[in-house]
Structure formats: structure tokens, C-alpha cells
Design goal:
The chain is of the alpha+beta class and about 250 residues long. It has one domain (about 65-245): Aminoglycoside 3'-phosphotransferase, Chain: A, domain 2 (Alpha-Beta Complex). It is about 40% helix and about 20% strand. The chain contains eight helices and ten strands. It has helices at about 30-40, 80-90, 105-125, 130-140, 180-190, 195-205, 210-230, 240-245; strands at about 5-10, 15-20, 20-25, 50-55, 55-60, 65, 150, 160-165, 165-170, 175-180. β4 and β5 form a beta hairpin. α2 (about 80-90) crosses α6, α3 (about 105-125) packs antiparallel against α4 (about 130-140) and α3 (about 105-125) crosses α7. It is globular, with a radius of gyration of 18 Å. The termini are far apart. About 40% of the residues are buried.
Length: about 250
Amino acid sequence: MDEVKVVVAHSQRATLRVGDVFLKVDADQARIDVEVEAMSLATVPTPKVLWRRPPVLAITALPGAVLGRLGGPSTASPAAWAAAGAAIRKLHDAPLPPWTGRAGRSPGDLAADLDGECEWLVTNGVLPADLVTRNRQVAQAALRPWAPAFTHGDLQIAHVFVDGDEVTGIIDWSEAGRGDALYDLATFTLGHEKHLDDVLAGYGTDIDLDVIRAWWSLRSLLAVRWLIEHGFDPFAPGCEVDVLRSRM
């Protein structure tokens, strides 16, 4: 019998791997609804849905390997990063889904949440006040009007699979929907700034780099408390706190 491997687990969801099958267990079936629908609409390769029996969704494994991981080096070639950029552009150019995703929150809502998180980080001594203040200033550039695109919403590099220089698929679509395309690009390059030029070469259009940098700060500030409370370490080398320090 194949070994059961825990891919990720926290209080909201867990993903297990048994051979070439992934089993996603989620307490919120609305997230699974979004994931299944988004994969059916996406214009890039995605896992195949094998079956669904709430609270479990079974999907196939993708060929190849992840492009990289936050906090670790990527051994993928510049051509692979460029291919990922082209795949992201293809997704962003696809017909819009009928719902708003994680990347589609309004500037006003984001600003309110950001101010609350910044206050929590300083009040509880999690991060120095000057580090939080500087990144809050940088993050402001992301709080602007944007044209909606079909966004993944959680486009970490560990969610993109490649085989050589070819993208073989993208996983974890539960946050997908209409949103800001630059949020996806920033999430994808978070902690891997040196690969941004390769990604944008594949993406193939002019991008406001100040907004990308703003999203790096904004996403990291919003993530620190959630990561700590769910058993992850944003202070690990190359992760969110290092991203914030790099803005100083």
C-alpha cells in the first residue's frame, strides 16, 4: 500500500497524498466549490478532479516538480520562470469568472485590515515599529483602482509545477476569482525577487514595479499573524519577515 503523506495541515484544511492522488479535506465547502469551478474555467493546466465527497476532494497529481518554495532556492532555469510568467498571463487574459476572489478585495477593505494587522504586530512586539511603518508606507502603492483579471489568488511558487522549461500545471485554486493581476505576480515572486525579470519577460507586458513591491509588503504584513497562529514560521530565512526587512 502507498504511504500516506501529510502535505499541509492546519485548523482550516489538510491535504494528504496517497500515491498519485491528493485528498483535500476542508471545513469550508465554499472553498472547495470555488476550487472545482476555477479549475474547470482556467486556461492553464490543472489537476483532474477524480471525485468529491464532502468534506473531501480527490484530485490527480501533476507531472514534474514544484518551481520552488518560499524560503528556499529555486533550481529552475530562467526559461522555466519565463514559461510560468507566460502561463500566468494566459490565465489573466481568460474570460472572467463570475465571482470575486482573494485578489479582488477593495482598496478600502485592504487598508482597514492592513492598519489592524500593523497595530497588532507593533502592540504585541512581534515586529519593530519602524519595520512595520516603513512597509505600511510601501504597501500604500497597492491600494489603487485596478482592472479585474482571472486571478489564482494564492499563486505561491510551490503551487506551480514544471517539467524542464514547461509548466505542467497549477494547483490550489480555492482563492481564485476576479482580482488584481499584480497580486498574483507579487505572490508568485515573493521572496524570489531575482527571478522577477524572467517572469515578466514571459508575462509580456509592462508592469508597475512599485505596485509589485507594494504587494510584497502588504501581503507579508497581512500574513504574519495568520502564519504564527496556524503553526508556520514567517521568521524563517527568506520568508515573510525577511521580505519586510528587505524594504528597509
